Amino acid sequence: MAFEGASKIGITEQGDLKLESVAGTSVHHKPVVYQTIDGKRKLVPGEFALVNNTVGFKIGDYDRRQPLVIDPTLQVLSFFGGTMNDEAAGVATTAVVPPVNTAGVVFVGRTESALLPGQIVNGSKSVGTNWDAFATGLNGGVPGVPESAGTTILWTTYLGGTGDDAARGVAMDNQANVYIAGYTNSQNFLRWAAWPWPTTRSS
Known about the structure:
Number of domains: 2
Shape: elongated
Number of helices: 0
Oligomer: single chain
Number of strands: 13
Order of helices and strands: EEEEEEEEEEEEE
Radius of gyration: 21 Å
Distance between the termini: 45 Å
């Protein structure tokens, strides 16, 4: 494998493949290599191999008469935020493929920024420099393509009032409903956000 745009490619002590570029850093975790024989999964020794910026796999002994699965996992680092301080505190995914334009991944936190990325729905940042809770919905994955999940911002909303507010945890059920927990110091909490959110029900 070759990676276009990578300024640095390396293998960590844990056996992960680390790629650095102007867009940030991404990590492919050490591959899980296995064969399914007689209905049972048999692990096979395997690791990344790097030669002249070309990445391959070094595989131990295996049954060449049977299919071999090499399953690396990709972890991507990206940025999200506005012009002030922003903190993410929780992320959740739904267990099923959600309908089109319905969030399959939601993350929450608190922010001082007046405008976060994404289409702001059912709410706006409260007046002043206090913290408000926020939630952002990302697209779900395409069946069979797990790395496609979380690549598009569908919506962002603020929750809070005139005091400091923060979302600290989030969960999703198998119908893509979103549940958020956190704290508030606002007497007028939810003044800045109305329910329900579009494309998903919330509680």
